[in-house]
Design goal:
single chain, alpha/beta, binds guanosine-5'-diphosphate
Length: 304
């Protein structure tokens, strides 16, 4: 299973840290709870979510004073799955689009380097495999490389791309993309946007304008604002989630680079802190390395 392979490192690390923390101890006491707190924090679950989990486990310990460390595993799983459930109502999204939304418009946000372009390419590929007609929009006009990279993925996946020259108005690119998609009777539109965080007011203004202009072509768009975060960056990912959720209404998350990282805990902390569902996870650089997030599989892999 790719997910198992992808999460191998986080699994080993979290699980081995946990095992070390409870080694030689038969019941869950304050020492075990302190150690568990440290294991969760160092696995990038984040301080607030860690404290929430510890509180819940303390509540269970106060009911059952002789709670054994063997049960800790099961209880932790339940608590973590429970936290993920709070942001994951209903079934997992497959690579389909909701009915009555044609074209279905996804605006993708995130800072440079997190895997935004790659995620767009992988996503386009999955939709195309489902027989859906996809159009990409290169509205990250700030860097020439961003436009070129998206073009590379458009060629690889064999989907049309709408672009203008570097420095042009992102809102204008988004407008053209949606107009073209409507004309082509496309099913899905994926718009790449600039990921500059150094100027928050500009970022907010730009994203607001892109949305406003999109709505001139297709009402109530974008249907999804997908924030891409690099799962291997720990606290940076939290900080980016904070900034982007301030700048625009983020409706879903994609967490990349969960292969080869010991930081899978970021998924738990971020979905809990921001109450935004993780829709996709990136588990490699290849075109097929995007998975629909499944909390049960995730928790299983995390614990081994
Ligand atoms: P962007 O600047 O956010 O658009 O980032 P790119 O999509 O160009 O990706 C930056 C780098 O991360 C590239 O080398 C990608 O191949 C790599 N990358 C993207 N997603 C993943 C992933 O899920 N796993 C791994 N290992 N690498 C990834």
């Amino acid at each position: 299973e790719t997910l198992d392979k992808g999460l191998e490192k986080s699994k080993t690390t979290f699980f081995s840290k946990l095992s070390k923390a409870v080694a030689g101890k038969s019941k869950v006491d304050d020492d075990v709870l302190d150690d568990l707190e440290e294991v969760l924090v160092t696995s990038d679950v984040g301080v607030n979510t860690t404290l929430k989990i510890i509180d819940r486990i303390e509540a269970r310990v106060s009911k059952d004073k002789y709670l054994g460390t063997e049960e800790l595993n099961t209880i932790l799983r339940e608590e973590i799955a429970g936290l993920l459930s709070e942001t994951h109502v209903g079934e997992d999204v497959e690579f389909t689009t909701p009915s009555g939304k044609k074209p279905y418009v996804i605006m993708v946000v995130g800072v440079n380097g997190v895997g935004k372009t790659t995620t767009i390419g992988k996503l386009a590929h999955q939709y195309k495999k489902k027989g859906l007609k996809v159009v990409l929009g290169a509205a990250d006009t700030f860097r020439a490389a961003a436009i070129d990279q998206l073009q590379v993925w458009a060629d690889r996946v064999e989907v049309p791309i709408v672009k203008q020259k570097m420095g042009s108005d992102p809102a204008s690119v988004a407008f053209d993309t949606l107009s073209s998609a409507v004309k082509q009777d496309a099913d899905v539109v994926i718009i790449d946007t600039a990921g500059r965080l150094h100027n928050k007011v500009n970022l907010m203004n730009e994203l607001t304008k892109v949305k406003r202009v999109m709505q001139k072509v297709v009402e109530d768009t974008p249907h999804d604002v997908l924030l891409v975060l690099d799962g291997s960056t720990g606290q940076n990912a939290f900080e980016q989630a904070k900034q982007f959720t301030k700048a625009t209404e983020v409706t879903s998350l994609a967490v990349t680079k969960l292969d080869g990282t010991a930081k899978g805990g970021v998924v738990i902390g971020i979905s809990d802190q921001f109450q935004i569902p993780v829709k996709y996870i990136g588990v490699g650089e290849g075109i097929e390395d995007l998975q629909v997030f499944n909390k049960y599989e995730f928790v299983d892999s995390f614990f081994g």
